[in-house]
Specification:
This protein is an all-beta fold and 196 residues long. The chain contains no helices and eleven strands.
């Protein structure tokens, strides 16, 4: 059997702060996979249950590519004892590819080096197998936002909203969380409670 696999992944990002408290970050990533496989199986008979009556060759190839793109805008603002954090962003992701498989018998050469479909001579109907199909796609586009409010580290309010659109479905999520807490520190141990 001969198998070759190549995978390339990488990403780049940029972060800028145009004004105090405001940060913009963008990240772009790509991925590529390439997989090939060849196999030859000669005629043999080891026993009554272990045998192969026809020599054949298998050949398979698949490739897949993907990309992702993320953008966020984050702003921190403080007014006396009130601290605000605003976040908005988007994410895009796409994956696709294809695969091909072939099998043919009556080999001209019986070794892995010559395990190619072109080196098999059988052209009988039903003795040649060829299939191909696209790789399952994974497409996603989502937008999200979040607001965090903090008052003297005593009261924390979190508002979150997210909308996603995929290949087969659309989703919308929203959440509100209030965290009043009472905390104390003693001898490096933490004591406190949270109410959700």
């Amino acid at each position: 059997n001969l198998k070759e696999y190549t995978k390339v992944i990488g990403d780049v990002f940029c972060e800028v702060q145009p004004i105090k408290g405001l940060k913009y970050k963008t990240t772009f990533g790509i991925g590529c996979n390439d997989d090939t496989y060849r196999k030859d199986l000669p005629e043999y008979q080891i026993g009554t249950q272990d045998f192969n009556q026809k020599d054949y060759v298998e050949q398979r190839a698949s490739k897949e590519s993907s990309f992702s793109w993320d953008n966020t805008l984050n702003y921190d603002w403080r007014l006396n004892d009130n601290t605000f954090n605003f976040l908005v962003g988007m994410q895009a992701r796409r994956t696709g590819g294809s695969s091909l498989y072939a099998q043919k018998s009556a080999l001209t050469f019986n070794d892995c080096e010559h395990a190619w479909i072109s080196n098999a001579t059988n052209i009988e109907t039903g003795q040649v197998i060829v299939t191909g199909a696209p790789v399952d796609r994974d497409n996603l586009l989502s937008y999200f936002g979040r607001i965090n409010y903090n008052y003297k580290e005593k009261y924390i309010l979190n508002l979150t909203d997210k909308a996603s659109c995929g290949l087969f479905q659309t989703q919308h999520e929203a959440a509100v969380a209030l965290h009043p807490c009472r905390c104390s520190f003693e001898n490096n141990y933490y004591y406190g409670d949270s109410i959700f």
